[in-house]
Amino acid sequence: MTEKIEGLTKELEAAFAAIPPGERLLLLPHCLRPSASCPGRPSKEGFVCPPDCKLSCAIGALRREAERLGYKGVCVAPGGALALRFVKELAPKAILAIACHKELLEGKEAVEELPEPHPIILPLPLLRDGCVDTEVDLKEALRLVRLGTQA
User: Fold this and answer.
1) Architecture of the domain delimited by 10-145
2) Residue-level pLDDT, tens digit, the chain, 151 residues
3) 56: how many CB neighbours lie within 10 A of its CB?
């Protein structure tokens, strides 16, 4: 496994922005949810937020924005295997992947082993990891979700 995930570059952002939202996936780690108060439930499609959720959290904000923009899918995964299955099933042209460094590395390598063409992967590492109650730069994450849109 490589030691470092490629960082965000203007070229990578431009390539991602050129892909319409309907051909993009947003992959989020379930550890981003507030563990003590989250009413969401695990399912075979990933962690599912209740439609009437009133909780203000990064997952809800990112999911709502991606859905509003028409993303092909949003998956809140407990690990790489579910996320990879989601990628295989939906075959996106681009993926915004938010996760810890280790999961980003493993996920990128797993996607690169899939048959071509490979989707563009835009990685955003968590600010704080640790598998529970992690944190993401929400402002930056929303900026990346919106790349190439009129939002």
Assistant:
1) 3-Layer(aba) Sandwich (3.40)
2) 334 556 678 899 999 999 999 999 999 998 888 777 877 787 887 888 887 877 788 988 999 999 999 999 999 988 778 899 999 999 999 999 999 888 899 999 999 898 889 999 999 999 887 877 788 999 999 999 999 998 6
3) 8
Q: Write down the pTM of the prediction.
A: 0.89
Q: How far is CA 72 from CA 19, 34, 35, in A?
A: 11, 25, 27
Whether 46 contacts 30, CB under 8 Å: yes
Query: Helices marked H in 18-148 — which ranges?
Result: 58-69, 80-90, 101-112, 138-145
Measure the CA–CA gap between 20 and 104, rounded to whole angstroms: 22
Contact 146, 63 (CB under 8 A): no
